[in-house]
Design brief:
23 helices; alpha/beta; binds magnesium ion; 4-stranded antiparallel β-sheet; binds adenosine-5'-diphosphate
């Protein structure tokens, strides 16, 4: 299981080239290009509406499908940008591009402020808060004299690009298509990049991201602003398409319709945004034509029909229409097929390491209290560079809690921790990770829907740079290549080489633990903290893991602190052991000494010995 050979193996491409999707895209592009010549005025206007809505739905795919945050207020951002465009557009002689910049700035600032105020809300409170601002922003438009109150702003001059007046639906069509295609391209690049991986890991909660040195709040805020900016582009296009703005197209009902579009298309697919808005808008038009034939009071019945559609969707097709379309071409969806980089020895920056035997970690009298339970009681020990130290003790002794204290996952109730000479007692989990402490979790934290390569690449987050804008514009290819090479290398050395594009969810529990180790190694750690890494492994696999950990120490100079229950495994691996019982340190020493200790035997077998203190 653990690879012995460390040479790089060249792999050219993952999988054969898929001609089906390429042909489909070619036909679709040709039809798209010809559409304004083939269709009537009404249909071209409908396509324009679909394109504009698709931009908003695309933002929702990112925010909801990728980031896991539901927004019922996206139409408000369209409104902010549309009004900003209309307001500036009435001034004579100003460039519409300046208008675009202005409306995106206003939308971005508004999203930042709203995001800062609401994104820390957990559970159902975030969607509820989106309803609040989704309701109130259109109300503000309707009550401001300078924005024309409820009658809105009319007679906005047509958009002009150089000498060309973009004043007909046919001309707008190409502009909208260009923005939509660019936004899809931007989103696709973004999701495959360093910031994109943090977005895709958001659903696992903040601990996974903090453990690799990334901030989940920053990721969520960025995603929220990006989604709002897509709505902003839609708002700008809306104003120049209609040349009239009023509050009602930006109200809560519109927001819900955008959410329905994203869901109908499939929140797991970027292109689902386009398909979803097409389905919803075409269905809406059909209903408006058909319902009056059924009843002469049909003008509100479309809402009922849409509600039924929504419920049916939740029951029968949660993956959306795109899931059905792409079922045969599964690998084409975001994060799927792409070139494999040869696993190369890490070329990302590496950390400096201490000389063997220098003091690395000094744990001084640390405690943790959970209400009345003293889970860790004034425990002290030291770890020196180049050591493998085991932390053992019966279930509930406080080992995992100790690891959570050392990595900053939990706050300490008392004591002091020094790492590399720096006091890290009160440092955040993220800060501690960036200082060079990498960890795995007793309960594995991975993204099952991400590939092995992406899961490991997440670990390289703090060793690389590159923001969302550069990633979206594909200006980060060199960094991405280095990250992918490093991740492929880590996979290879833990024995998961050649399976880069398998989904992490398809691994056995034992393999998932190994994958977590690869992710931790991608952080180039000085100290590696492993919580029960051998649980779920077979005997031979355990032996290979022990060999690998020793080699890691010998060749890479990684110091290792490990919790493990399998005594054979531990005794043959570690240089020194710290034994905990009932939250306190029972004894510390070399494996031989621990094996012979009566206190330890009593603790494991449950005898009462004087030194084993009870919890408070
Ligand atoms: P070990 O890893 O040694 O098996 P833990 O560190 O997980 O033990 O747990 C030590 C004690 O602390 C247990 O009694 C456990 O129930 C308790 N504990 C751990 N985490 C929490 C928590 N978040 N809240 C309350 N009690 C906790
Ligand atoms: Mg534990």
């Amino acid at each position: 299981m653990i690879a012995q050979d460390q040479e790089s193996s060249p792999v050219d491409r993952f999988g054969p080239r898929e001609w089906g999707p390429i042909a489909l895209w070619l036909i679709a592009s040709l039809l798209g290009l010809m559409a304004p010549f083939l269709l009537g005025d009404f249909s071209v206007s409908l396509l324009n509406d679909i394109g504009i809505s698709a931009l908003v739905a695309l933002g929702l795919v990112l925010l909801t499908g990728v980031g896991g945050a539901t927004s019922f207020g996206q139409a408000a951002f369209v409104g902010i940008a549309a009004y900003a465009t209309a307001w500036l557009g009435r001034c004579e002689g100003l460039s519409p591009w300046l208008g675009l910049l202005f409306s995106l700035t206003v939308t971005g600032v508004a999203a930042c402020l709203i995001g800062l105020a609401t994104l820390r809300l957990g559970g159902h409170f975030l969607p509820l808060s989106t309803i609040a601002w989704g309701l109130s922003i259109p109300l503000v438009f309707g009550n401001m004299d300078s924005l024309g109150r409820y009658s809105g702003m009319a007679n906005i001059p047509a958009l002009g690009i150089g000498p060309v007046a973009v004043d007909t639906p046919r001309r707008m069509y190409y502009l909208i298509a260009a923005f939509l295609i660019s936004s899809l391209w931007f989103s696709r690049n973004l999701l495959r990049s360093r910031p994109g991986r943090t977005f895709r890991a958001l659903r696992s909660g903040s601990q996974l991201l903090a453990s690799v040195g990334a901030s989940s709040f920053a990721a969520r805020l960025q995603l929220f602003v990006i989604a709002a900016l897509f709505s902003g582009v839609a708002g700008w296009l809306y104003t120049y398409t209609n040349r009239f703005v009023s509050p009602s197209p930006f109200d809560l009902r519109a927001s819900i319709e955008y959410l329905l579009m994203a869901m109908a298309g499939g929140v797991g697919y970027l292109s689902g945004a386009v398909l979803g808005s097409a389905v919803v808008l075409v269905a809406g038009n059909l209903l408006q034509d058909l319902l009056p034939l059924l009843s002469n009071r049909a003008n509100q019945l479309d809402i009922v029909a849409f509600s039924l559609l929504f419920i049916a969707l939740l029951h029968f097709a949660r993956g959306g229409a795109m899931a059905l379309v792409w079922r045969q071409w599964r690998r084409v969806k975001s994060g799927g097929a792409r070139p494999v980089y040869p696993a190369a020895k890490p070329s990302l920056p590496r950390r400096e390491r201490l000389q063997i035997g220098e003091l690395l970690l000094d744990v001084d009298q640390i405690s943790k209290r959970f209400g009345g339970l003293l889970a860790v009681d004034k425990v002290s020990f030291r770890v020196y560079s180049g050591e493998i130290v085991g932390l053992i003790g019966p279930n509930g002794a406080g080992k995992s809690t100790m690891f959570n204290l050392l990595t900053g996952t939990l706050g300490k109730s008392g004591g002091r921790v020094t790492f590399l000479g720096q006091d890290i007692t009160h440092c955040s989990q993220r800060k501690i990770a960036t200082l060079g402490i990498a960890r795995t979790f007793q309960h594995v934290k991975l993204r099952p829907a991400m590939t092995l390569l992406d899961n490991v690449a997440l670990g390289a987050h703090s060793r690389s740079k590159g923001g969302a804008l550069a990633a979206g514009l594909s200006l980060n290819r060199q960094t991405e290549k280095l990250i992918a090479q490093d991740a492929a290398w880590q996979l290879k050395r833990v024995g998961l080489g050649g399976r880069e594009f398998q989904l992490a969810g398809s691994l056995s529990l034992g393999e998932q633990r190994i994958l977590e180790i690869a992710r931790a190694l991608a952080m180039d750690p000085v100290l590696l903290i492993l919580d029960e890494p051998a649980a779920g492994l077979r005997r031979l696999e355990k032996k290979e893991l022990a060999t690998f950990l020793k080699r890691l120490r010998d060749e890479d100079g990684v110091t290792i602190l490990i919790v493990e229950h399998d005594m054979d495994f531990v005794m043959n691996l570690v240089d020194r052991l710290v034994v905990m019982n009932f939250g306190a340190k029972l004894i510390e020493g070399e494996p031989g000494l621990i094996r012979a200790s009566q206190e330890v035997q009593a603790a494991y077998l449950g005898f009462d010995v004087p030194t084993a203190r009870g919890s408070a």
